[in-house]
Backbone:
């Protein structure tokens, strides 16, 4: 597998973990306290999206996307759905990404609610989902759809506990059982 390195070159990477894979310890570290819950939500959703997506798309965790080259901006969404044929392109590019999902945790609220959503929209990623924990502990999933004319997201559907989405794929997954 080839991966891009700083300065624009390519290098052969050490290898690729077979897909699907378990969440890495870095996911829990990024989410601080409660990181196992957030990582579990991300992995459960990634598995459901991967099953619903069919052979042309992969859903994964711990997968980087390069949003822009100058200034260099890479993000690692909690879940990413990308073209299966680009699995060896690291980091992947926005034109290969269909959906990104962020699981909000204490300390990431502003970044996940404002900064990342703006960056993903400007990069042209068609769908953005944000998962928040209600006071009762039940996950709330907010979905957004890109308006290509404005390069801004428009509100989509909201789900509490169980996601029953029709876009970008028909999917039903219960996130309230974590």
Residues:
């Amino acid at each position: 597998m080839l991966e891009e390195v700083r300065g624009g070159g390519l290098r052969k990477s050490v290898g690729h973990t077979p897909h699907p894979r378990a969440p890495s310890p870095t996911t829990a570290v990024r989410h601080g306290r409660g990181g196992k819950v957030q990582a579990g939500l991300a992995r459960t959703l990634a598995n459901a999206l991967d099953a619903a997506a069919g052979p042309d798309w992969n859903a994964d965790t711990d997968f980087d996307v390069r949003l822009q080259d100058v200034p260099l901006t890479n993000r690692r969404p909690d879940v990413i759905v990308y073209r299966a044929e680009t699995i060896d392109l690291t980091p992947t590019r926005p034109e290969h990404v269909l959906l990104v999902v962020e699981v909000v945790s204490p300390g990431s609220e502003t970044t996940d609610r404002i900064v990342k959503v703006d960056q993903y929209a400007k990069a042209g990623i068609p769908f953005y989902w944000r998962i928040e924990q209600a006071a009762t502990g039940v996950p709330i999933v907010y979905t957004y759809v890109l308006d290509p004319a404005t390069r801004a997201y428009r509100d989509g559907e909201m789900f509490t506990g169980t996601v029953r989405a029709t876009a970008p794929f028909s999917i039903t997954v219960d996130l309230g059982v974590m």
About this structure: The CA atoms of residues 67 and 73 lie 5 Å apart. The two ends are 34 Å apart (CA to CA). The chain has a mean pLDDT of 84. The first strand starts at residue 2 and ends at 4.
